[in-house]
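Lab notebook, bench 4. The sequencing result for the construct came back, and we need a structural model before the next group meeting so we can plan mutations. Quick request posted to the team channel:

Model the 3D structure of this chain.
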Amino acid sequence: MNSKPDKAIVIIGTLDTKEPEVDYLCSEIEIRGHRALVIAPGVLRIPQIRADITREEVAGAGGRKLSDLVKNAELGVYRGNITQVMMQGLASIAKDLYSSGKMEGIISLGGSTGTALAGAAMKVLPTGIPKIAVSTSIYV
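Done. Here's the predicted structure in C-alpha cell form:
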C-alpha cells in the first residue's frame, strides 16, 4: 500500500499569476513520493487549480475577510495594506503547520509581492527547516 506521508512540502504560490508553475512543482514533488501542500495568498483573481489552504483562509489568518481586501483593491486602496494582511496570515499558518509537525520544508514561487509574502512565512520558521524562494525579482 502506497500512502502519502503525514508531513508535507509546503508550496506558497500566488495562483493568480504563477498557476502553471505551482501546478508543475506540486506534480514534481508528488511524483517523488512527497506530499505537497499548496497555500494560495494571491488576491488578484480566482485560482483555477486547487489550493489546500485558500486565499480566503490566508486572509482570515491575517485578521481580515478576503472579500474586503478585494473590494479595497478595486477601490485603489494601497496594495501594501493588503500585502500586510496576507503576510500576517501566511506567517501564522506556517508557524501552525510547523509546530503541529505537518511541514518538512517550504518553497515559494512568486514575483516581488509573492516573494515578500513567502518571506514572512519563512522568517517565522526555525533554522534547519528547508526554505527555498524562487522569484522573478530580488531585493538586496
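The radius of gyration is 14 Å.
Will bring this to the meeting.
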